[in-house]
Design brief:
single chain; 15 helices; alpha+beta; 678 residues
């Protein structure tokens, strides 16, 4: 069978057939990964073990004599070797990095074999120190550090592979019923006292072992006389949102009038006391198993063949602080078909449906499900799209999605969906969603800003080096919104333009509320939409009341509207002036937009036309390929020359020879202004 580590074996025989789901809307929000780790299934000759620290499956054939195959989380990490059959293997694990193998065959000692290039493959052994103690198991906490857990305490050793011996670093006497290890945090949890419900955690860090504060799990009923009452299959340890929790599956007790089982979360901080933090209401009874995926607590229920998920950061409106209901209705894990492989597989054979919620499944933290009888290890995954179909409340849906790992595209699709068939009534919901997105966006911008400031002020040289903030998928910025949602939305023919503008303004309002600088392309989208629908009065109002913030790109856009909306020219110049743009820069802006006459008109209006470069204007006029425009500009400068120097011709310093040649070529020499003598 599986090793004693299979704490959460689901054991019951009343497995029903999976009911076909005729509902076409995808509702399975949990699935098994596509590429499971495959190993030789458990049998009379093959024992299967799982090491939670390295996430490795060991298939041990006939005590190792006919081979041990170790499969890691990815295919590249397979190891195969043989060892002498010295009796039944109880537990087998590699140290971190596969450097040293430890094998337990008796309740008194553990054997070691070096797997390092320059050291011989010879076994060496370590007996536990305490007289009459039984070794319950062991945990590697480093490549060369190991903890023995006995029924009378723990012994912390350093392994010296070159000397083929172990050195005791520290030990602690305490009566132990069972233990649990959380490899992510290097915390070992011991069940102590007669009832087993006082838990004592120890944490291990590079050669040191520290006792954390012990705590008591509140049992639903206290047996008389006292006996072991807290089973290790009702406890799991996992990291959720970066914090360590002990999860206790509190079964429904018939004496107490409770509606069903619950999962009680105890928060285990690095320092300080462990506190009861959250209660997850399961609203049913039976056999359960726990996983944690993407910071969600997943509770599998065997008899109904369904699972539910909880998010401890989602606040329930109507209940006590930290009592949680499932985020979504119970659903089965997505049906899984086992592809047939190997020489016997024929192309025409159909893949076999896998029996989900099988009694032979073992569940490991955080997100692993193993079927030893079929030889598969799966990672459990959350699918976000079905959650969208099942969670109607858009605000709650956003809170849920924003905390998930791969959320960006799903969130953007929700935003697009919510704008379809636009109703005025949906604006408050849209506003709520925009605000939730922009809050996360703003927090990221602020973190990024304080990081930049710390780096610039040289604080990061100290030992409190600030980490650059990680940009998660939940950060949806203006370009994401523009590209995937708003620009597409404004093209919709079947939506009222008033609604389109209301939505754009709502997004801009939300950005302003969080004091996020609005990117000019959003304003451009508003202006283009207004112009498209001839809503010039609205455009005028927006500019007049500074709803659209001044910017140079925006001023340029207004200039280009002059032909459809003449007042735009003046609106644009006013904006450039408010931005205290230098006159010559305004000229550059106008010329870059091919507004050559506009530029000339502007420079005359501010009285700078005597000092401008003729060549620059003539170049710009040539680029427009408009001969009449070129003629007009050329004539203007001839007149200026005449007025300033009494001669219409250009001086060599003005470098206008090619333009004079072009003028002659198009309009003929006789069209040049004649020198008029006084």
């Amino acid at each position: 069978g599986t090793s004693q580590e299979s704490t959460e074996a689901l054991a019951t025989n009343n497995i029903e057939d999976c009911k076909p789901n005729f509902n076409m809307i995808e509702e399975h929000y949990l699935e098994l990964c596509d590429n499971p780790v495959q190993f030789e299934n458990a049998s009379a000759v093959n024992n299967v073990f799982f090491d939670e620290a390295n996430k490795q499956v060991f298939a041990v054939r006939s005590g190792g004599a006919t081979g041990v195959v170790v499969k890691g989380p990815d295919d590249k990490s397979t190891v195969a070797f043989r060892m002498d059959d010295k009796g039944e293997v109880k537990c087998i694990k590699f140290s971190l990095g596969n450097k040293i193998l430890a094998v337990q065959r008796t309740s008194k000692s553990v054997e070691f074999i070096n797997f390092m290039p320059d050291l011989p493959h010879l076994e060496y052994s370590q007996e536990c120190r305490t007289k009459n103690a039984s070794v319950l198991g062991f945990c590697w906490t480093n490549w060369n550090e190991i903890v023995f857990i006995t029924d009378q305490g723990i012994e912390f050793y350093q392994v010296l592979p070159d000397k083929r011996s172990l050195k005791l670093l520290k030990s602690q006497s305490i009566n132990v019923n069972w233990y649990m290890y959380c490899p992510e945090t290097f915390v070992i949890l011991l069940s102590t006292t007669v009832q087993g419900n006082v838990l004592q955690p120890f944490v291990f860090r590079s050669g040191t072992m520290s006792k954390m504060s012990k705590f008591e799990i509140e049992l639903p009923i206290v047996p008389k006389p006292a006996k072991l009452n807290l089973s290790e299959r009702d406890i799991a340890v996992a990291t959720i949102y970066g914090q360590l929790y002990v999860m206790y599956l509190k079964h429904h007790s018939r004496t107490v009038n409770s509606p069903g089982a619950e999962v009680v979360l105890y928060h285990l901080p690095r320092e300080g006391a462990c506190k009861k933090a959250n209660v997850l209401k399961l609203n049913t009874t039976g056999k359960f198993a726990l996983n944690v995926v993407d910071n969600l607590v997943v509770v599998h229920h065997q008899s109904s063949q369904t699972s539910i998920i909880f998010d401890i950061k989602l606040k329930e409106a109507d209940s006590a602080m930290n009592v949680h209901q499932p985020v979504l209705p119970a659903r089965s894990i997505h049906p899984y078909k086992i592809p047939l492989t190997g020489p016997a597989a024929v192309a025409t054979q159909m893949p076999v449906p896998c029996e989900l919620y099988s009694s032979t499944w073992s569940v490991f933290q955080p997100d692993i499900i193993i079927s030893a009888s079929e030889g598969y290890l799966w990672y459990l995954q959350v699918k976000l799209q079905p959650a969208v179909n099942l969670l109607q409340d858009k605000g709650k849906l956003m809170d849920f999605l924003l905390r998930r790992r791969d959320c960006k595209m799903v969130i953007l699709s929700v935003c697009s969906q919510m704008l379809i068939g636009g109703e005025k009534g949906s604006l408050p919901v849209i506003a709520t969603v925009f605000d939730k997105l922009n809050q996360v966006y703003k927090e990221y911008l602020e973190a990024e800003q304080s990081y930049t400031m710390a780096v610039e002020s040289g604080q990061s040289r100290g030992n409190t080096a600030q980490k650059r903030p990680v940009r998660t998928q939940a950060v949806i910025d203006q370009s994401d919104m523009y590209t995937h949602v708003l620009s597409v939305f404004t093209e919709k023919k079947d939506t009222s333009h008033k609604f389109i503008i209301a939505v754009l303004m709502e997004y801009i309002r939300s950005l302003n509320q969080f004091q996020i600088t609005v990117q000019h392309y959003l304003y451009e989208l508003v202006i283009k939409t207004l112009v498209q629908h001839n809503l010039f009065y609205m455009l005028h109002q927006f500019l007049q009341y500074h709803v659209l913030s001044d910017s140079k790109p925006l001023a340029c856009l207004l200039l280009s509207l002059e032909s459809t909306y003449p007042p735009a020219h003046q609106l644009s110049l006013d904006m450039l002036k408010r931005l205290s743009t230098a006159n010559d820069e305004i000229v550059e802006v106008l010329l870059s937009k091919h507004q050559v006459l506009g530029a000339l008109r502007f420079i005359r209006s501010v009285g700078g036309h005597d000092n401008i470069s003729a060549r620059k204007f003539l170049d710009a006029a040539r680029q427009t390929e408009d001969e009449m425009l070129f003629y007009t500009i050329f004539r203007f400068f001839e007149q200026r020359n005449q007025r300033l120097r009494g001669n219409p011709n250009f001086t060599p310093g003005e470098h206008c020879e090619e333009h004079v040649a072009y003028f002659k070529q198009v309009f003929g020499e006789q069209a040049l202004m004649k020198l008029t003598s006084l």
